[in-house]
Specification:
Blueprint: H1 3-10, H2 28-44, E1 47-51, E2 57-61, E3 74-79, E4 94-96, E5 104-107, E6 112-114, E7 130-132, H3 141-159, E8 168-173, H4 187-190, E9 194-200, E10 205-207, E11 212-221, H5 237-247, E12 263-271, E13 275-284, H6 287-307, E14 312-320, H7 324-327, H8 332-343, E15 349-350, H9 358-364, E16 371-373, E17 385-387, H10 388-407
Parallel strand pairs: 3-8, 3-9, 9-16, 10-15
Antiparallel strand pairs: 1-2, 2-8, 4-7, 5-6, 7-17, 10-16, 11-13, 11-14, 12-13
């Protein structure tokens, strides 16, 4: 089975995660997909295959070299779920072969068009084979492309025993898209010295920095009085909430920031005169600035309570941290990935993630885990697509990492 065949089969599984179920996995489709993948891994003859009740699937490609004990165990990880942002049910992909440039009509009836006028990076893929949606769902390259690439790389190594390698661990986990993918990941059971998530975007992406992240709820209690007799009595929590939101820096929002710039992001507002809740996410790559942002929210709550005594409260909790502090002591794993990319004809693009990744949480659980491209573009929506050639390049990088690691007997110190 080709990598493309695998991917087209995988996207047919509806694995959209759901943050409201309080279950792991959060949706039954993820477990159905995991069971299917377990069967495929068994048919390939992999070892130590486990699938727990939470939907974490792990397996081993055993070493085939005489000095396997001297080769660090490397892992590759991808997630089963697709984003809650758009439906992943009844995905109907098609391949645009030898893309000539210009618009791609995804859905004639609904006039849904994938156009380089809106997505100029499409022009980087002229002459390649693009897998697109029919415009009514997302595609699921995030992260079924990563799963297909990992399995295809393992299959390639099985077909080419002349490529010597150490022990390789692979894992597919649920609920990455709702920030819970690493919560029940058993790092000790996985047993790798380090790993890579195959969950990035375009070819060449290599990421070992991500946001420090927190979530916050600002709860504002009002006082509802008949508007005809409300003077000096009513406290309209909606208006107080609006006042609170305006006190945060206008330009420190996602739509005005890039690169290493952090932000406050108002992701939800729900309220009546009596009570209103503002839901925020707080993001910054720099730990000190991250802590300062949290203190600013606390300051604004105090300031609001000075004007409206006792009306405002804050619930805030950290979500994840920048994995850079855990990767810097083992930068040889970044060098290894860079070398593997260059041997595949790819120039590495080391850049910060303006978001999170399972690898960040796993790094803080003791498994250093940077992120490598899976090849897709426009994740989480109807305009998502993935070039076949990009997936093949990702597979090549996985194979190269495994091969190069075995070739470096002093892996911990020599690169």
């Amino acid at each position: 089975m080709t990598l493309t065949d695998r991917f087209l089969r995988f996207v047919k599984f509806d694995t959209q995660s759901d943050d409201l179920t309080n279950m792991t996995p959060s949706t039954p489709g993820q477990m159905e997909f995991a069971v299917y993948l377990k069967g495929e891994l068994e048919a390939m003859g992999l070892e130590d295959i486990t699938l727990d009740t939470n939907g974490y699937l792990m397996a081993t490609l055993p070493a085939n070299c005489e000095e396997a004990a001297d080769v660090p165990v490397v892992g590759f990880i991808a997630h089963l779920d697709t984003a809650p942002d758009m439906s992943g049910k009844h995905v109907n992909p098609r391949i645009v072969k030898d893309y000539p440039g210009g618009d791609i009509i995804l859905n004639q009836d609904q006039q849904i068009i994938l156009s380089p006028s809106e997505f100029p990076e499409m022009l980087n893929y002229i002459g390649q084979d693009l897998i697109v949606t029919d415009g009514t769902t997302l595609l699921g390259a995030d992260d079924k492309a990563g799963i297909a690439e990992i399995i295809s790389a393992v299959a390639y190594l099985q077909e080419h025993p002349e490529i010597k390698h150490g022990k390789v661990r692979i894992a597919f986990n649920p609920d990455e898209e709702i920030g819970k993918g690493a919560h029940k990941f058993d790092v000790e059971q996985f047993g790798a010295e380090f790993a890579y998530t195959m969950d990035g975007g375009a070819v060449g992406e290599l990421e070992f920095e991500n946001f420090n992240a927190a979530g916050a709820k600002v709860i504002i209690k009002g006082r509802n009085v008949h508007p005809g007799t409300a003077k000096h009595k009513m406290v309209n929590s909606i208006r107080v909430a609006n006042q609170f939101a305006q006190m945060l820096p206008r330009w420190e929002t996602p739509e005005h920031t890039e690169g290493y710039e952090g932000f406050y992001h108002l992701v939800g507002i729900n309220g009546t005169v009596e009570e209103t809740t503002l839901t925020y996410i707080i993001r910054d790559h720099d730990r000190a600035r991250f802590e300062s942002r949290k203190k600013e929210l606390e300051h604004l709550v105090r300031k609001t309570n000075e004007e409206y005594p006792g009306c405002c409260s804050l619930e805030m909790a950290d979500q994840y941290y920048n994995m850079r502090e855990k990767i810097e002591p083992v930068m040889h794993i970044i060098s290894l990935a860079e070398e593997a990319m260059r041997e595949a004809g790819i120039e590495p693009k080391v850049q910060p993630i303006r978001g999170g990744t399972d690898g960040a949480q796993l790094s803080f659980k003791g498994l250093p885990c940077p992120n490598i491209f899976a090849g897709g573009e426009n994740f989480h929506g109807r305009y998502e697509y993935v070039p076949v050639q990009s997936m093949e390049k990702a597979k090549d990088v996985i194979v190269n990492i495994i091969r190069l690691l075995a070739a470096k007997k002093d892996a911990k110190i020599s690169f």
